[in-house]
Design brief:
CATH class: Alpha Beta
CATH superfamily: Ribonuclease H-like superfamily/Ribonuclease H
Strand content: 25-35%
Largest sheet: 6 strands, mixed
CATH architecture: 2-Layer Sandwich
Distance between the termini: 20 Å
Oligomer: single chain
Amino acid sequence: MVVAQDVWAGSLRRLQKARIRQMDFTQLVVEVWRPPTGSVYKLNFDATVFDGNRSSEVGVIVRNSLGEVMADLSAQGPAVANSEEAEALACRKAVEFAMDAGFMDLVIKGDNAVVMKAISSPQLDRSRLGHIYDDIRTLATGFRSCTIGCVKRSANSVAHSLAHFASHLEDELVGMVRMELLAEVLEVVTWSQLGIHDKPIKQLHDSN
């Protein structure tokens, strides 16, 4: 079975950049997705915001210790004021999605450091988004175990691409994602970014 360690981040890579005029090479380590341990599942989520109408999109993917995709979500979200609000709302939707799907032991990862720090803080948040963070913390108590943390974008690229993919959907796309479908998602998003097509995409439900 193909292991989904991260479709677009790939396995651990080192990028070497040559300096001009016989200067040394600089090596940059790219953080990649790492599987959870034991019977715990890892949930990655992300949000995107489009400047035109400030609409947001959400991407969520849940994987097991083998890197196998257990569940995924691409959905359109509400208009937001900024990326922090989009990420906070995306996290709440991701937690609700995981709870509805029946996952009980989770590691939750997002790539917005401000949002993840606010969610992890035990202190009462009196900011404009404080009620959303409080909702997330309250929902998280419904899991048997739940750990929340922040990752770099390179280790969150599948969720990021699923969020981008949501802008092409007429309905939410929820279900079990095969590796072949994830590759198709990236291809469709790339076509849109290159201007090859701008048609909406509709989910076809397979009874099998």
